[in-house]
């Protein structure tokens, strides 16, 4: 696993979720109660962008149909989604956010709505 810099810490204020990329891997980075978390960016219900949703007490809320996912485990905690989202380890150093990804994660590009055009 390699930690890749994806953002400056100030780009993700507490209570917000934003979209970033590690190579072609699209991820949602959220800050909840001061801690940064990284997940896949698409809801497992109908592929809506989680980065356009809001953080709630339980985790990331999908803006399309209200599904909520635990930011630590990725588990769906509120329907209609029942399948978990992928989570990635995060570390913050010197005002930068780093996300832990594998070569496989980077090669696949992670969960996404559409395949990349090459």
UniProtKB/TrEMBL annotation:
Coiled coil location: none
Pfam assignment, any one: Rieske
Annotated ranges, domain Rieske: 3-99
InterPro entries: Rieske_2Fe-2S, Rieske_2Fe-2S_sf
SUPFAM superfamilies xref list: ISP domain
Assigned keywords, A-Z: 2Fe-2S, Iron, Iron-sulfur, Metal-binding
Transmembrane segments: none
Keyword Metal-binding: yes
CDD domains referenced in this protein's UniProt entry, alphabetically: Rieske_RO_ferredoxin
Protein name: Rieske (2Fe-2S) protein
Protein's organism: Prauserella oleivorans
């Amino acid at each position: 696993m390699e930690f890749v810099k994806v953002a400056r810490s100030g780009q993700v204020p507490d209570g917000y979720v934003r979209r970033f990329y590690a190579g072609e891997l699209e991820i949602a980075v959220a800050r909840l109660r001061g801690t940064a978390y990284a997940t896949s960016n698409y809801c497992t219900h109908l592929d809506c962008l989680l980065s356009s949703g809001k953080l709630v007490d339980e985790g990331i809320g999908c803006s399309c149909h209200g599904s909520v996912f635990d930011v630590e485990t990725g588990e769906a905690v509120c329907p209609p989604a029942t399948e978990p989202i992928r989570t990635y380890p995060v570390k913050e150093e010197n005002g930068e956010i780093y996300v832990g990804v594998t070569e496989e994660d980077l090669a696949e590009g992670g969960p996404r709505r559409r395949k990349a055009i090459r």
